[in-house]
Write a structure and sequence with these properties.
There is one protein chain. This protein is of the alpha+beta class and 238 residues long. The protein has one domain. It contains seven helices and nine strands, in the order H-H-E-E-H-E-E-E-E-E-H-H-E-E-H-H. The strands form two sheets. Strands 2, 3, 4, 5, 7, 8 and 9 form a seven-stranded mixed β-sheet that branches. Strand 3 and strand 4 form a beta hairpin. The longest helix has 18 residues. The radius of gyration is 20 Å and the shape is globular.
Length: 238
């Protein structure tokens, strides 16, 4: 006799959470997903908010959990007379931290300084001691209209499965685009927002929020082949 599946005797209405999952997940908004915090993420870690932990985990140096604050390194001498030049200097700095601090994702917010130069907000680099994400939420009271973009690195993945991820991580993830859009929601000028990604090999490229549709329409095969990759970011005046 053939086994038959057993079905529930009654049907029930789906919850709002279940309906969202059927529809493809929650809306891609940092305000919905991360409570308004701004995260940049690697490929594969875009919508798993539970993966980020509670914020109370210990740092590798034993200094205790981060709570609501990302770990910040302050630095100087990364300012430049143009946005792209500052992003390149910051990106090189982030890539260098992989060998001195660890293979983590680091990030900074780009602003125009009072003297007309460009650099990192509060001369700060943020990390969450993860190879896959970093929290970049500015301090309370920040004027978001001064923020022009994000710089982040992607550490080289040496795992057996890392071959593809290293090439995919040359491009912004859905979480990265979400971070730019959240900055715009909070008052940054969407027309001027960019994310600069320093890839696993140390090359920095600029991706403009205005080009989001182009990059999100690509499939993984096109990304692996380097389709639509912007030119390398170069110093001011080059």
């Amino acid at each position: 006799m053939t086994d038959q599946a057993t079905f529930p005797a009654t049907l029930r209405e789906l919850t709002a959470e279940e309906l969202q999952l059927v529809a493809g997940g929650w809306a891609q908004s940092s305000q919905d997903l991360y409570g308004g915090d701004i995260y940049v993420t690697a490929w594969g870690y875009d919508t798993d908010s539970s993966w980020f932990g509670t914020g109370d985990e210990d740092y590798p140096d034993g200094s205790g959990g981060g709570g609501d604050n990302p770990y910040e390194f302050t630095f100087a001498n990364d300012d430049a007379p143009c946005k792209q030049g500052a992003a390149l200097k910051i990106g090189n700095h982030l890539h260098g931290l992989e060998s001195t601090i660890g293979k983590y994702e680091f990030g900074a917010l780009i602003v125009q300084n009072a003297d007309g130069t460009y650099g990192a907000l509060d001369n700060g680099i943020n990390t969450s001691y993860s190879a896959h994400m970093a929290r970049l939420t500015p301090p309370e009271g920040t004027d978001y209209s001064q923020i022009l973009g994000i710089v982040q690195n992607q550490p080289y993945d040496t795992s057996l499965s890392g071959f593809n991820s290293n090439y995919l991580n040359r491009y912004p993830s859905d979480g990265d685009w979400m971070a730019l859009e959240t900055l715009a929601e909070y008052g940054a000028d969407a027309a001027r927002l960019s994310i600069f990604i320093t890839d696993p090999w140390g090359t920095t490229r600029e991706f403009k929020l205005s080009d989001k549709a182009l990059y999100q329409a690509m499939n993984d095969s096109q990304r692996l082949q380097g389709g639509n990759l912007p030119p390398e970011t170069v110093p001011c005046g080059s």
